[in-house]
């Protein structure tokens, strides 16, 4: 079995002095108290300036990711909320958020970063695997989950990412034994990790380093899941 012990030895060399500013945090706090179109229009110039600075930060995160992974695209999410089917009709999000998609069919999974006073975090993994991917993952864990459990129990990995999270079914998916020893994994519908950051950490000059270090640490998990999702149960590639 492969050795998934985590060792983070790569020296950090910043792309630049990119930081999340206290002014950006203050703007988000003001927006939370004045979440209406009139206030936003009056302060749109301020928003655009902060948005540009935060986007620069995300771009720098992407550049760091590309030093140890292959990122297909970075997407910053819009500040405007879709309120059509929501009871909450406030028009604006009170956070900045963006995702980073890995390149190609052979690299699976993605990264996410949200900036919000009191509720900032990074997340990674598989939020909504499609029906085929979910079935393949479950069949793998039905057959053998020892490699995953080795990663999840690694002290260095757990120190950064904690426990595997994600919604699941209450008992067992159709066709699977609810008494299976790996049912805790089989019944999941999402396979994600979340790491929270305090405001002090987000506003520090080392925050971009901490984000990148966290993302580097997830690589053993991504390598295993990518292998699962690009092969059949016999370990044969399903890619063209």
From TrEMBL:
> InterPro entries, from UniProt?
CHP02453, UCP028451
Q: What is this protein called?
A: TIGR02453 family protein
The record's section on Pfam families has: DUF2461
**Can you tell me which residues the record assigns to a coiled coil?**
none
Species annotation:
Flagellimonas pacifica
Top-rank taxon, per record: Bacteria
